[in-house]
Structure formats: C-alpha cells, structure tokens
C-alpha cells in the first residue's frame, strides 16, 4: 500500500504543523483514515463542513454544474452567480444589499480592506488583540499574533490593535485616519471569546458617526455555526461589511464580502479575481445554503450546543477553567496546555482543535447526531475530571 504520509512529506512545501493522520474519506460528521479507522469529527475542517462532509445535495449540484459550465469570467453575467447573490443577500442583515465573491477568507478580508480605503479615502485600521483575519499581507496586518507577523514585516502600514470587548480603548485608538474597524463577533483562533452585545453596538455607532467602515469578520462564525445564519444577528448589527468563507459552499473554496450601500464599488479593474464566484462554486454554495435553511441548521446548532455543553456542565471538571459557547461553537478553557488532550482525543478517535495554547475548540458539523455528541461528551468528562 502506498505510504501517503511519506509521499506527501517528500514533496510538500509544508507550512503546517502536521497531525499524524492521513484522512481519506468523510461523510456527515465522520472521517476515515487510510487504514480504515473511523473518527468523530469535532473540527469540521475548522468550521468548513457545517452541513457535513460530502453532503449529498452539494455533490449533486457539483456534478450537474460540472457537466454544464465550470468557469465564467467576472466580466460576464452568469445564472448560478445571480441566484447565489440573491440568496446570500436575502439571508444577510437587511442593510447588506450587495456581495462580492472571492476564493477564500483571507481574500475576503483583503477585499474589505481595499473597499474601506476606497470608500473613506482614509488609510488606517483597528482590530483586536487575539484576533485572526488571515495570512495574506493585508489580512495578516490585521491579525494579532506576533509569531505569524514578525518574519514578514514590513506589513501594510496603519494597522493597530486594541483589547477585545473594551470600548474605551477602542475609542481612544480612533484617529482622523481610521478607515475601518475589523472584529470577529466570536474570536475563533483567539480562544472562543464572545463579544458583548453592548460593545458591538457601541462600535457600530462609533463607526457610523465617524465615517469608519465597520467590518465584521464572520469567516468562522457565519452559516449557523453560532445558532444564527450570521453571528451579527445575536448583536442586532447592521455593519458596513460582513466577510464570510469557510462553510459557505459546503467545503468548496469560496469567500464573500457582504456590503451595505455605504460601501463604494471600485470598478474598472481596480479589484477583481479570476476564480472568485465561478459557476461551479456558486452551484455548490446554493445547495449548501438551501440545505442549511431547509434543515434548520441554525436551530440545530442552538439545540445541540445547549445539549452538549449542558452535559459537560453537569460534572465537576477539575482541569477546566471555563466552558464558553454560542451554538455549536464551543471553547473549553483548560487550566493546563491543550496539546495532551488533543492527542488523547485522537487516540479515542475524536478529532478536535486548539484555539491558542489552553483552549480546546469544538466545531462539529451541525448535522452531527445526538449519539455522537454523547460519545464525545462522555469521553471529555472522563479526560477532564
Ligand atoms: C475569523 C477568520 N478570518 C479569516 C480567516 C482566514 O480565512 P482563510 O483561511 O480562508 O484564508 C480565518 C481562518 O481561519 C478566520 O477564522
């Protein structure tokens, strides 16, 4: 049998720290390795597989669209793109009336940065400590972690950081040059830190009063992950832009910036993409979003999140400092480093994620069964007591 791990190690220009597992198949909330071992997925490819792996509706849409039209430049109109845009905008907070389609999360953030500079004719951005917005140079400039940034400096000038959920500090950081404020409604990479409603509403008011674009980064939180189609709904927000990606197309690469009428459109080739919003990914995204709506995945996320966290909270877990969740976006902050627990879970055929050094991040597919939630809750209780 081919040793895929060795083969990949030989040829990959590998930027990722690897886990010792070769995943070859997925269905729903289950994954399989190359030796046929079965795992419960509590990562969803980092909130990508919200509708489950190899979702049948997405597979069917991809096959049909692949036989019809795969590529179409943005300089032409396209049926699937038109239908997806209508759907996306229809589900978004009411003030968001247009969408720009990209290929990834970081590219959505890059676009939002450009749109904010273009609209306000100002240069600077403020984002939050522990925030993560991507790894291309603009998005990286808004990303807090020093280790991600320092080898690639100088980054884009004009970016600064303030403590999350601290409105006074944010207000102090605003200058006449501030073009945009970029915030996650729940910090994913930063440790599942949930924003306060009052804070988010104050930020929005500050932006409205000072010609600053409020950019809500929902790349990890959108599409029912937190129990709403967009986490912004928890805070009654009407931001200038929402960036999305990850689960938007059932696992096929795609990103988007949802824009309000306050955002000016840079036409004439000032912005663009070859692959962004191609017919294949638009067809996948239509199927994925329809599946979310038809199966009330937002409701499922709330119910399953409450059920799962409720189970954990029944026990005295000596290794746990705090459990935080919004829907099925769950963080378990430990009193120790998370690495050992991740290995133990994997030995027990459960795949989970870290968020920083001490937080266990749990993002199962929203279609996960209650039986699987029970298995994982039981194992966590055993390991964390
Ligand atoms: C909140 C947030 N913003 C941006 C990104 C970057 O997205 P991508 O990896 O698709 O470039 C991520 C990815 O983890 C994210 O979680």
Which features characterize this protein?
385 residues; Aspartate Aminotransferase, domain 1; Aspartate Aminotransferase, domain 2; 7-stranded mixed sheet; 36% helix; globular
Largest sheet: 7 strands, mixed
The number of distinct structural domains comes to 2
CATH architecture of the largest domain: 3-Layer(aba) Sandwich
Strand order of the largest sheet: 4-12-11-10-7-5-6
Helix content: 25-40%
Poorly predicted runs are none
Overall form: globular
- What ligands can be seen in this structure? pyridoxal-5'-phosphate
Which structural class best describes the helix and strand composition?
alpha/beta
Q: Per DSSP, what share of the residues sits in E-state strands of 2 or more residues?
A: 15-25%
* CATH third-tier fold name of the largest domain: Aspartate Aminotransferase, domain 2
Number of strands: 17
Strand/helix succession: HEEEHHHEHEHHEHEEEHEEEHHEEHEEEH
Cα end-to-end separation: 41 Å
